[in-house]
Design brief:
Helices cover 36% and strands 14% of the residues. It has 391 residues and is an alpha/beta fold. Strands 3, 4, 5, 6, 7, 8, 9, 10 and 11 form a nine-stranded mixed sheet that branches. β1 (101-102) and β2 form a beta hairpin. The longest helix is centred in the N-terminal third of the chain and has 58 residues, at 2-59. It is globular and about 65 Å long.
Length: 391
């Protein structure tokens, strides 16, 4: 049995070698044929493949369209139609309330109706409870003109405003000892306020007896002002800069005239702030497009925004001598009341008086001005693609 088995294995091995020997020549011949054929067929195949790709791009243009589609970062895994690129500050009811709700003063306040939902302008203001009388007048006037209102509480006091009938109809944001620029950088992102044509970002120490928000908006639209402010009543206001003083000859002025023998005056040939293309930062009004630019300019860590006023013209969407101006027809009073800082009685001791932090605020403001100037210069020097329109 062993002998015959070995013989069978040997016989089988011989047959395998014989079979392999017959396969190798055939396989080699087939490879040669394929190699030679490919040399002739490859150009033709490439041409057909190119035609198929071109045809496919015509038959399915969506492929090219998708390549060029801009999507917000992080939304690439979502269908485009579900992405909300912007938002707003409208408060929504918890359930469907179709009846108009009115407060005690029916002529002024209304919510959850068609008029309130049609607001196209935003009024935001940094407030403290000590200035509640002035704030109350401003809030009433802007609500009556169908503005969305947002109050930034820098003193942390929110509940004490509940006594005002409009309290539930405005948005409240509270953070201790922060400026309106700190609030604006964090809560007025351009994509959040994109629905509002104009953004008013005001201080609280202003009088509005001679100011009408609706008429003001009509004037800046007509005049093409992207950045503006109401003029100041020179008889009642604390006026820091001549350009903000109210004139009576025209509805709007865009420059001031200030003779000076040292070359620092302002005349008809002046092209730079503060002679022209400039407003003060107490009561600025920005168009939607201008605000998108200004928001980026506001620094995260510089809360007083000193120096920002001199650069606002870069956000004027064109010629700053034409698109930046002061509205004389609708004017306000600047009372100049100190808000941030002030006397701190908690730090008083038997050896000293209460500390006045207004001095600290002023010092910090100057420090931030210096930092902003240096950052601006550094950014100009490093950005080789940027061209200064105001060299």
């Amino acid at each position: 049995m062993k002998s015959s088995g070995c013989a069978f294995i040997l016989a089988d091995s011989k047959s395998c070698r014989s079979c392999l020997c017959s396969i190798f020549p055939a396989a080699s011949l087939l490879c040669v044929v394929l190699f030679v054929g490919t040399a002739y067929l490859a150009p033709d195949y490439k041409g057909k493949l190119l035609k198929w790709q071109i045809a496919d791009s015509f038959e399915n243009p969506k492929l090219e369209e998708c390549k060029n589609q801009c999507r917000p970062s992080g939304s690439e895994s979502l269908p485009e139609g579900i992405v909300s690129k912007t938002s707003n500050l409208k408060m929504q009811p918890l359930w469907d309330i179709r009846k108009i709700r009115r407060s005690k003063d029916k002529k002024v306040y209304q919510t959850m109706d068609s008029k309130a939902n049609s607001s196209t302008n935003l009024f935001a203001m940094a407030v403290g409870i000590k200035q509640k009388d002035l704030v109350n007048k401003m809030v009433k006037k802007f609500l009556a003109s169908d503005f969305v209102l947002m109050l930034f509480h820098y003193d942390g006091v929110v509940n004490e405003w509940k006594g005002f009938g409009w309290n539930d109809h405005v948005i409240h944001v509270s953070a201790i000892n922060q400026t309106k620029w700190w609030f604006a950088k964090r809560f007025l992102h351009p994509d959040i306020v994109a629905e509002y044509s104009y953004i008013f970002l005001w201080d609280e120490d202003l009088g509005v007896d001679n100011f009408h928000p609706g008429r003001y908006v009509s004037i800046v639209k007509h005049e093409g002002l992207e950045i503006s402010q109401p003029a100041l009543d020179v008889h009642k206001s604390e006026v820091h800069h001549q350009i903000t003083a109210r004139g009576r000859r025209t509805p709007v002025h865009r420059r001031t005239y200030k003779p000076s023998g040292n070359g620092k005056g302002c005349d008809a040939s002046s092209t730079a702030p503060p002679c022209t293309g400039w407003i003060e930062m107490m009561a600025p009004v920005f168009s939607r497009t201008a605000w998108r630019c200004v928001w980026y300019m506001i620094q995260n860590d510089l809360i007083y925004a000193w120096g920002l006023d001199m650069q606002l013209g870069y956000c004027a969407q064109g010629d700053r001598t034409k698109n930046v101006g002061v509205v004389d027809a609708e004017y306000i009073v600047h009372y100049g009341r100190p808000t941030l800082g002030g006397l701190d009685k908690t730090e008083a001791s038997s050896q000293s008086h209460a500390k006045d932090h207004r001095l600290d605020v002023r010092r910090q403001s100057y420090r931030e001005l210096d930092v902003f100037k240096k950052r601006w210069k550094k950014a100009m020097d490093e950005d080789k693609c940027w061209i200064d329109p105001y060299p």
